[in-house]
Every structure is written in C-alpha cells, then in structure tokens.
Amino acid sequence: MRFREKQKDVMWTVDSLRAFESNVAEIFETGAIHGPVHLSYGNENDLIEIFQYVHPNDWVFSTWRNHYHALLHGVPQEELMKVILNGHSISFQSPEYHFYTSAIVNGILPIAVGNALALKWKKSTEMVWCFIGDMASESGVFYEAVKYSVRNTLPIHFVIEDNGLSTASVTQETWGMDNTDGVGLHLREDLRSKYVSYYKYTRDKYPHVGISKDRKSKI
Fold first, then answer.
1. Among 108, 137, 127, which residue's Cα sits nearest to residue 51?
2. Crossing angle for the helix pair 14-29 and 77-85, nearest 10 degrees?
3. Which of 44, 68, 182, 218 has CA atoms 20 to 30 A from the CA of 199?
4. pTM of the full structure
C-alpha cells in the first residue's frame, strides 16, 4: 500500500493514552458514567504507528472500542471525555473530525465503504480508514466489503485489531480454526497489503465487561 506521508509531532504516547483510559476507568467505577464503556490497553504502539499515516482530513471509522482512535485522529480529549461522561462512549460521532463509530458488530463496514465510494466519485484525495476486531474480520460482511473495495479500487484501508476474543468468546474456537493470521482473505499479497492491515495484541487489563461499584453497567 502507498501509505500517506508521515505526520510530524505526534502528541500521544503510550503513557498518555493509558493515562486517559485509566482516568475513564476510575470515573466509571464511581458510577458517574451512565452508559457502556469499552477500554483499550496493550495496543498503543501499533496504533501510534498506524496513525502516523492517517491525515487529519482522512475519515476514520471505528467500533465501540474507539477512544484511542479518536484521540490519535485529533479529537480533543476534553471533547471526547465529555461524550464519555454523557454515556455515549460506544457511539461517538464527530463530523468535524471525520470520525464515526458503530456499536453494532460489522455495522461500520458498509458505512465506511459507502464513504470511500463517495470520495472516489468526488475525486477527493482523502482516504477512509476502517478499524474492526478479529471476530468481525471472519464474517461475511467483511469479505463483501473488502471484495467490493478491491474491485472498485476505493480509497479505503481496513485495519484488523486482533485480541483473539469477541466479548468472552475465543475467535479461533468459534470459527473452528487451528490458527489464524487475522486475515482469512484469498487475496494476492499485493492487494492484501494495499487494502488490509493486521496487528495482534493481548487484552490483559480491561475485560470486555465489568460491573461498576454503584450501578450495573458494562465496561
């Protein structure tokens, strides 16, 4: 893939990203956030590297676990924290920063592809970046989205974030796989590298779900 030219002076570091999520977790445990929250940990270096190629005017589509993506794409942390405190962590949208999410599994894929098609029609230099989990990458919707994007040479790149789990289900066991490289696509290597990236990390700090001290919410 012809990656974008690297941006300079990336503000976020591993420590600062983790500090943001730790702050959210502490507030959540007080019961002050009246909505589901999904936190990241352990994939900071991978995302920092990826976002060096994402231009400010590019479009980023994410899932319910989106805080890191939003921050690295330039969404001010004060704005993101306000959204989280209002209970909308897993459904954050920001037209100003070209940032959209969906809490529906695979729900963001057709939206991202449609946006990429519109950019091609407009002959825009902007690009779409679509982040999904490993379980979603094994679904039919993902295959259709990638196939359509390849055949229509759309300006989109899919990033698979593999922590080996979907909620509490092990991805490999669910799909009957002996092993996985995170991409089950039957694409030529040059097409795969152009349209799909993959990285693996361990979800070892924040579980998919948890109970706050004062109210039964999901984290």
1. 127
2. 20
3. 218
4. 0.84
Whether 131 contacts 102, CB under 8 Å: no
CA distance 51 to 53: 5
CA dist 125 and 119 (Å) reads 8
End-to-end CA distance of the chain: 35
Q: What is the dihedral of CA 45, 15, 96, 147, to 10 degrees?
A: 20
pLDDT by position in tens, the chain (length 219): 445 555 545 589 999 999 999 999 999 988 899 888 989 999 999 999 999 999 999 999 999 999 999 999 999 999 999 999 999 999 999 999 999 999 888 899 999 999 999 999 999 999 999 999 887 888 889 989 999 999 999 999 999 998 766 665 655 555 565 555 544 455 556 666 789 988 888 877 776 654 444 544 444
Phi-psi category of 53—alpha, beta or left, where left has phi over 0 and alpha has psi -120 to 50? alpha
Instruction: Give the Cα-Cα-Cα angle 17, 56, 66 (nearest 5 degrees).
Output: 40
Q: Coil, helix or strand for 134?
A: helix
Contacts of 143 (CB under 8 A, 6+ apart): 185
Are 148 and 191 spatial neighbours (Cβ–Cβ below 8 Å)? Answer: no
Quote the CA–CA distance of 34 and 48 in Å, as a whole number.
29
CA angle 202, 195, 118 (to 5 degrees): 120
